[in-house]
Design brief:
By secondary structure, the protein is of the alpha+beta class. Among the domains are: 69-201, no CATH class; 463-562, Dna Ligase, domain 1, CATH 3.30.1490; 581-641, no CATH class. 31% of the residues lie in helices and 29% in strands. Strand 29 (581-587) and strand 30 (590-598) form a beta hairpin. Helix 1 (35-43) crosses helix 7 (184-212) and helix 2 packs across helix 7 (184-212).
């Protein structure tokens, strides 16, 4: 069966098809009102093995289009979501910034029940009470229910009883199935988000499966695909679905190129995603969504609201800003011809890096005069020259992106100079060399299929699902043996989700010194002494000290991987680089001559000297003055500072 990787972005929906050893690509404008329309249009006729990175869950939450959801919790904990952790996002703000409301207080209800921390039932749950509350919820027009009882990770019997009653009339999420760990607030956030997304994701998958024909799989946030059956139960796992594909592709292509230290830069039309790969992909379980804690496994990605469609504006103090608001696919940047919004893309048009002679995705031809008008209005507001304003817009965008790179590198003890910057997305190649220079990163790689790279990552991914279990035991030989048995139970559960194929299991313990409020992930081994040594070494690396205190295993995490068949990257023939166009650009405050090349005309060994531009249907690459570029055997472009 033909295979298709599809990534839905804010501006474009990207496709990579693999059939009979050949890769084929497509790029269509996204359809924000119904993302499935662009997906189905791009797939066309025929049946596919489809792996799809979707923004449906994220957009539904951001646009407040989730289902009407109720929270059911233990008596005395009604305001669990409202109280949260009482942390201040900005210590110096006189008005506290609160996370967005998942479920309003009037839809939060309690039931009289209590399970203790060790799983013993203190107050039994009455089925009659649950049935009475179900009738109330029905009268309130509730569509979905999140059940979060205290200590259900230790004994889920009460949640199962409530779920049995509520599931007759509502979509239901039970906290022990969504996040089987202690810390009731984090568990409540994950469960409430999951419940509110259940009807939304079900409607989307129904439409997709009905019309796509073939097998449909959805990319999850931890860097693997999962079945639609799991996605229907756990839509919260897709909140960072699309960007994960780019990191997966970077890791896979890095192996082809013998690179094991990579900083990824995925700049699309709406935002830029940055991640760090050091030997393997970094998975985090302490991310956040608009200051809501997300304990679900995710590829460790930092996102900034800077993309090709990010809108340039002037604040009340007269300072030039770029983003986070984006022009998106509709109406798009001014040069698309449907708006007057000045964006980063328009600034690059003014600077000459994007030309009307070379169409963008879906054959879109730009209207440069509209970019000049839009950027000109910003220039007038700040009393500046047109080209200096365009360079200012680029400079602000680079500064925003630079901060994200530092978050995943310098602030975690990693020197960016020891890594290679792998840039992709429609706009990644336009800014990568200048960004690398600012960060003292020695080389840039623009991978093949850069404009649809995240979609390629879907085809290079494996089936993945993560499982967790709260443990809360002091480290000892006996608890290590008990943990091994618990992992065995989790592996049997995983085999139910992946009934076919040989699974690869990765066991991890989350450990801490007694009394600490945070944990460190340590690979599990059947030796208490080895676990202790590994934990102390990691603690020293991260925090530069160890403690002479008892160590606890807090959570057990299992990552189940089902290896999938993946396409090989095709090699390209050798060929000299021949420019097809010559024009003036603006760089560093002055005009200079630039050579333009078509990406499809370049071959292995092609050598270019900046300033030059490489255009293709996948994206545009800019080689600044003082830089050189060489094309590799897979069509990747290596950019470095020229040695003179």
């Amino acid at each position: 069966m033909k295979r298709a990787g599809v990534d839905t972005g804010g501006t474009f929906t990207d496709f990579v098809f693999f059939e009979e050893g050949t890769l084929r690509t497509a790029k269509l404008l996204s359809t924000p009102e119904n993302p499935a329309l662009a997906v189905l249009k791009g797939l066309g006729e025929g049946a596919y093995f489809l792996i799809h990175g979707t923004t449906v869950a994220t957009n539904a939450f951001l646009e407040e289009k989730t289902a009407r959801t109720a929270l059911i919790t233990t008596e005395g904990f009604k305001n669990l979501l409202q109280i949260g952790r009482q942390t201040r996002v900005n210590l110096f703000s006189r008005v506290p910034l609160k996370p967005p409301e998942i479920i309003p207080e009037e839809l939060c209800f309690v039931l009289r029940e209590r399970v203790l921390y060790d799983g013993k039932v203190d107050i039994p749950l009455s089925r009659e009470d649950v049935e009475r509350l179900a009738r109330t919820l029905e009268e309130r027009g509730v569509e979905a229910v999140a059940v979060v009882f205290l200590h259900s990770y230790a004994n889920p019997s009460h949640e199962r009883l409530a779920g049995d009653v509520f599931s007759r009339k509502f979509k239901v999420s039970l906290s022990h199935q969504v996040l089987n760990e202690h810390r009731e607030y984090e568990r409540a956030v994950a469960t409430a988000l999951n419940a509110s997304l259940l009807p939304v994701m079900e409607d989307y998958l129904d439409l997709l499966e009905k019309n796509a024909r073939g097998e449909v799989y959805i990319m999850n946030s931890s860097g693997g695909f999962m079945t639609t059956e799991i996605t229907r139960r756990m839509p919260v796992l897709t909140l960072l679905s699309g960007p994960a594909g780019g990191v997966i592709a970077s890791h896979a292509v890095g192996k082809f190129l013998s690179l094991d230290r990579i900083i990824t830069l995925d700049m699309g039309g709406t935002s830029t995603d940055v991640s760090l790969i050091k030997g393997g992909i970094s998975i985090t379980r302490s991310s956040s969504l608009f200051h809501l804690p997300l304990r679900i496994p995710m590829v460790d990605i930092q996102t900034v609201g800077t993309g090709g469609g990010s809108i340039a504006w002037v604040d009340d103090g007269g300072a030039l800003r770029v983003g986070p608001e984006s022009a998106g696919a509709d109406p798009g940047p001014a040069c698309y011809g449907r708006s007057e919004l000045p964006t980063l893309t328009d600034a690059l048009v003014v600077l000459g890096r994007i030309r009307e002679e070379f169409p963008l995705g879906e054959g879109l031809r730009i209207k440069p005069e509209r970019s000049f008008e839009a950027v000109g209005r910003i220039a007038k507001k700040i009393s500046s020259d047109l080209y200096r304003t365009a360079e200012g817009i680029l400079e602000v965008s680079l500064s925003n992106t630079e901060r994200a790179v530092k978050l995943v590198s310098l602030e975690r003890g990693e020197d960016p100079g020891e890594f290679t910057l792998m840039a992709f997305g429609g706009a990644g190649g336009l800014v990568a060399a200048e960004l690398a220079h600012r960060l003292s990163i020695p080389r840039v790689v623009i991978p093949p299929l850069q404009g649809v790279f995240s979609a390629l990552g879907m085809l290079l991914s494996d089936g993945v699902r993560e499982y967790s279990s709260s443990f809360l035991r002091q480290l000892s030989p006996e608890t290590v043996e008990e943990a091994g048995k618990r992992f065995g139970q989790m592996e049997r559960e995983a085999k139910k989700d992946f009934p076919e194929g040989a699974l690869i299991f990765e066991r991890v313990c989350e450990m801490r010194y007694r009394g600490q409020g945070y944990e460190i992930s340590v690979p599990f081994v059947n030796s208490a002494e080895s676990l202790l040594n590994s934990f102390n070494q990691l603690h020293m690396k991260l925090y530069y000290h160890t403690q002479d205190r008892p160590v606890e295993i807090v959570n057990l995490r299992l990552r189940a991987v089902l290896p999938a068949r993946k396409p090989e990257l095709p090699q390209i023939p050798s060929r000299r680089a021949e420019p097809v166009f010559e024009a003036d650009i603006y760089h560093g405050g002055r005009k200079m001559n630039c050579l333009f090349y078509r990406g499809q005309d370049l071959g292995n060994g092609s050598f270019l000297r900046g300033p030059s531009v490489i255009t293709s249907s996948h994206g545009t690459v800019y080689i600044p003055p003082g830089f050189v570029a060489k094309v590799g055997i897979y069509g990747e472009i290596w950019i470095e500072v020229e040695n003179v």
